Amino acid sequence: MSEAQSSTPAAPWIAAQTRQLLGQPGHARLLHGPSGLGQYRLALELARAWLCEQPDADGACGSCGSCHAIAVRTHADLCVLMPETAMLELGWPLSEKAQADIDDKKRKPSREIRVDAMRDAIEFSQRTSARGRGKVVLVYPAEQMNAITANALLKTLEEPPGDVRFVLASESAHQLLPTIRSRCMGHAMHWPQPAQAQQWLQAQGLGAADAERFLQAAGGRPDDVLALVASGRKASDWSRFAPAMLAGDSAFVRDWPVTVLLDALQKLCHDSLCVQQGAAPRFFPLPAFQPGAAPSLAALSGWARALKDSRKTMEHPFNPGLMQEALVEQARTALNSVH
Which domain holds residue 290? Predict the structure, then answer.
């Protein structure tokens, strides 16, 4: 999610969940669900409301000094724990040491939540509130804590000091330590109604037809739509993607980031398996295969496993062009396999 996405007006399904959760007790929340449902947005809305000087049942006022401090990323009572890559993308400042290390090219921004940052957060939780409204630690995505980092958090979750609250947001909660999950009050993210999501996406500047097509491409997850748009994809790409992969046209995806391409291929594989078994596709407007011409179940299943393996190494410094060609050839072979 880009900084622009994080600052868009609260979606109605996020606002409704904010009201619901503010009426419940508890010092630690775990917001969980698939990507694109607004876990980070909801976590930040809760933090804003908890720290707001003039909150109401709907949440933060949006105009007090506390709300302004969060908006400009300088609130003394809010500690945000994210991978450094996400911190930079969303406009949150790194610690002085981390920023200096990255500026001096001693290392690259971390893609996981570092244990040093967790230790700083634990120390933060033990300090006195600067504004007198308590303190909040926001962790997103929580599954990016490794075992050492998660264990460092565990004791503080068990025995929270004073007036600190925790909100953990996750897109893969099953990856969290069971002990972390058990010490938080869980909240499954709500799915918006398609018409509601389309209306909100149109308010973000998408045309009606593009909003509908992108929402299908994203499996009904509005924040994933915004991520697709930010990656430079066009709605027309999705109607042309399946034929291009069937033809092995690697030039069609030459400007696609590998992460976006892998996501699209996994969705295409999913839909192909659905159609092969007589079910309706979910992500693409795929036509039914001609009788006797459907890809073989064995080939599609093997392709699904290969794509899953590719995800494990997609952040490695491979040559993107060669990786794209290999992925497209893999797709062409699977899609053209016949019983």
Answer: 231-335
